[in-house]
TrEMBL record:
Keyword Membrane in record: no
GO molecular function: pyridoxal phosphate binding; transaminase activity
Residue numbers annotated as active site: K183 (proton acceptor)
Taxonomic superkingdom: Bacteria
Family the UniProt entry places it in: Belongs to the DegT/DnrJ/EryC1 family.
Keywords: Pyridoxal phosphate
An annotated GO BP: polysaccharide biosynthetic process
Pfam families, alphabetized: DegT_DnrJ_EryC1
N6-(pyridoxal phosphate)lysine modifications at: K183
SUPFAM superfamilies found in the cross-reference section: PLP-dependent transferases
Protein name: dTDP-4-amino-4,6-dideoxygalactose transaminase
């Protein structure tokens, strides 16, 4: 029985990576804005359709630095339905997270509930494009303008996502990508901040390099969050394969949807109109009374069959010990998020996943339903 993980990294042929490594050995330039770093920033700008890309050693440091770059303090409105790094980045900046519930249709921060959570201490909104599905960009923009708040998008799942043929990374003050091994586009570890003007780009580039501007001037207490040349070179190679990888993911998502629609008690997200999706995850919601098994029973059963589906995102961030004492973390403030976290399970999706394995996974799901 072959084991099927929830995700598996996109790895181009190894021999195609050797020439990049040879160049690095020749130049002896290993990090600090090297040739591959510069080239990857440019190629990502072109590929994604954004003005400026600042590469980082990982997505979490990019989030922490983005909050510094925008000088965000006080309270920030955010979603509990995300990977824990979203809220941790606030904590590392001594910012108080204020949790607001999510929409039942997209699992993203619910704009209708944001205004009630704004206080005189609120300085920003930090939404997440969960599973790569775009947030309600216009409604969030409107609220930010009305209350003079910054918007920082955690776009870790949203590589290449477009709305009406425009990158959703162009919305908000800044957006942050993750290039972790488990993400659609990876540089082993890595990440980026997307920004819209050259002055901000320079500021972020200084912050990720200890605050140095030039050889002897330090403009701020920066950090070391630079991407190295091996990571950047891998990103350049990976970019050659990304369109194929995205096409494969789309095919798998469509196959799941077609086959799962006949099973009672399983709900999945459909593609949204005028959106180019990344298919970074394939979440389904299990309705226990209709399906006949709880989400956790299904999770355990799949595991026994060698299928490592994952309960992203469970537990909710607001239910972790660090955050559960916050007033906004109370479960009755977050009914939709708590319900989704209890029902959701992400099925395996990655470019190398065989269609026969997709069929096998669906058959197991069907079987439990009988
Ligand atoms: C992966 C992820 C991060 C963290 O990115 P790293 O590159 O692993 O540090 C942040 N937010 C979300 C929503 C993520 O999924």
């Amino acid at each position: 029985m072959n084991k099927i993980p929830v995700t598996s990294p996109l790895l181009p042929p190894l021999e195609e990576f050797h020439p990049y490594l040879e160049k690095i050995w020749e130049s002896k330039w290993l990090t600090n804005n090297g040739q591959f770093h510069q080239q990857l920033e440019q190629e990502l700008c072109d590929y994604l359709g954004v003005k400026h890309v600042c590469l980082f050693s990982n997505g979490t440091l990019a989030l922490i630095t983005a909050l510094q770059a925008l000088r965000i303090t006080g309270e920030v409105i955010t979603t509990p339905f995300s990977f824990v790094a979203t809220t941790h980045s606030l904590w590392w900046n001594n910012i108080k997270p204020v949790f607001v519930d999510i929409e039942p249709e997209t699992f993203n921060l619910d704009p209708k509930k944001i205004e009630a959570a704004i206080t005189p201490q609120t300085t920003a909104i930090m939404p997440v494009h969960v599973y790569g599905n775009p947030c309600n960009l216009e409604a969030i923009q409107q609220i930010a303008e009305t209350y003079n708040l910054k918007v920082l998008y955690d776009a870790a799942h949203a590589f290449g996502v477009e709305k009406n043929r425009e990158s959703i990374l162009n919305f908000g003050d800044l957006s942050v990508l993750s290039f972790h091994a488990t993400k659609v586009f990876n540089t082993f570890e890595g990440g980026a901040i997307i920004c819209h003007d050259g002055k901000m780009k320079r500021h972020i580039d200084d912050l990720k390099n200890f605050g140095f501007r030039g050889e002897t001037t330090v403009i701020a207490p920066g950090i070391n969050a630079k991407m190295n040349e091996v990571q950047a070179a891998f990103g350049l190679l990976q970019l050659k394969y990304i369109d194929n990888a995205l096409a494969r993911r789309k095919e798998i998502a469509e196959t799941y949807r077609e086959k799962l629609s006949a099973i009672k008690g399983i709900r999945f997200l459909n593609d949204l109109p005028s959106i180019k999706h990344a298919y970074s995850y394939f979440p389904v919601l299990i309705d226990e009374s209709e399906y006949g098994n709880s989400r956790d029973e299904l999770y355990e059963h799949l595991k026994k069959q060698g299928i490592y589906a994952r309960r992203y995102f469970y537990p909710l961030i607001s239910n972790f010990p660090t955050y559960q004492g916050l007033p906004s973390a109370a479960p009755d403030n977050l009914p939709v998020a708590n319900e989704v976290a209890d029902k959701v399970i992400c099925l395996p999706i990655y470019p190398d996943l065989e269609m026969s394995d997709v069929t096998r996974i669906v058959e197991i799901l069907e079987d439990r339903n009988k």
